[in-house]
Task: structure prediction
Amino acid sequence: MTGGKRQWQAWLLAAAIVALAAWPLVEFWLTNPDDQRLVDLDVYRSGGQVLREGRPLYDYFTPAPQLLPFTYPPIAGLLAMPLAVMSWTTAQWVWTIGVFAALAVAVWFSFRQAAVDRKPLLFALAMVCCTYLMPIRDQVRFGQVDILLVALCVADILAVKPRWPRGFLIGLATAVKLTPGVFLIYLLVTRQWRTFWMAVTVTAALTLLPFAVIPQDAFAFWFEALLDPNRLGANAATTNQSVRGMLIRLYLPDLLTSALWLAIVAAIGWYGFRGAYRAYQAKDHVTAVALVGLMAVLLSPVAWIHHLAWVVVVLGAVVGDARDRVRLWVAAGVWLYYVVPIPWWGVSLKALEIPVISPVLGKIVQNGYGLGAIVLVWLLASWLPKRRTTLTN
Result:
């Protein structure tokens, strides 16, 4: 048997392992009642249908009980139009397969230092582990787009010899969901001028295109819908793990909440982008991408749990070349932390109504994923460089 044939068989085995491991998760969510199944995909598909029918994109809500509006820029609605010509069943399967394909791209680039691109079983192991992270489980549950955005940004930065103009995919991701725009700041800080201008050009082109094609919807988004935070859902809900979400749950006066939020995100932004710049200088591009991805979560006014799909890249950065046992143990701890439903444990703890302990500890645990993301910024920006220095001395 030739080496090439054995390699293909190994990759087929890896694909089979991933499919078998993911199947219980896929089956569980795809057999839910219609009104509880891939509700965000329903938003995208409905947006495409509304545009095909010539109706206002930002006046539409999905049917009860969800009643979800379209919250993305108008270019996302245009890109969702192909979903509108599919049956609901077909769209669910196409999207779910796409989620795992995007996860595979993110894992491929994020864990490449550990040779997952040459060792199929290691790739399968990384895929299975990442599949059961809660932010990734929520990608499947809701039919979300976040892991696709992660894959676009990761591929754009980490591909050695991309077949596309570097910066194009970041521009696409930014135009679709704004928050990847933190990578424009990263490219500016690291003076990657050619990539920066390509990303800016693509973002601008895809942002302006709807003004020519669907001008009423474009104006409605940028001057009305974008300014209404309540369109995104209850900002104080447990699922909002952004810094602002954590502060809102303290129920402080609005002015104080806003002042604290601006001060904290300024500090986190400075620390995170400085860490990303230093990682870039050290040629540790995976760590740089992971840090910038965490900025997309922590600096955003609203960041749902599924936005933490960037944890996949964080794990790849911490694992590195998989030769440092301490880093492997730390990665295992980070993985477990984002597998178990910690924020919901906080909700349960608060419901116990134990004097002093229940409300205080419960609120801390309820904010567990957001607080964990802040710790991950420190881990990547301070602990990881020192760990590398210790090993090389």
